[in-house]
Amino acid sequence: MPTKTATKDSERTLADDRDKLVSDLKTLIEDAKLLTTDAAETSQEVFSEKAAQVQAQLKDGLEKLKEHGQVAKEKGQETLDTVEKLIKDNPWKSLGIALLAGIVIDRLARD
Predict the structure, then answer these.
(1) Which of 5, 29, 88, 94 shows the greatest Cβ crowding within 10 Å of its Cβ?
(2) Would you say 86 and 94 are in contact if contact means Cβ atoms under 8 Å apart?
């Protein structure tokens, strides 16, 4: 039969083991919280970097599109000015071309 001292020692050992286990579980929980926080911060940084890169690429693309649009607008305006000048310089020739174009379109539309 175990003695009172052996029983108390066993109880103390069990209590110490339980306290150590609780302490280890608390440490594990804190480590898990830190790990998830670190992972979230790292993910946030990566997403922020990628978003900034995409935003920069979109901004560059938009600037290029604006430049091309401006060039196209200028060329269109030049062409329009040239056509207007030709019409003003040769009104009868322009009228004849327009009449001929109308006849051709009429013939094509009837077929």
Answers:
(1) 94
(2) yes
pLDDT tens digit string along 7-66?
Answer: 677 777 877 888 888 888 888 888 888 888 887 778 777 788 888 888 898 898 889 989
Burial of 94 (0-12, 13-18, 19+ CB in 10 A): middle
Cα separation of the two ends of the chain: 119
Report how far residue 45's alpha carbon sits from residue 26's, in angstroms, rounded to the nearest whole number.
29
List, for residues 79-92, the tens digit of each pLDDT value.
Answer: 999 989 988 999 99
80 and 87 Cβ atoms separated by less than 8 Å = no
What are the structural domain ranges in the chain?
A: 8-110
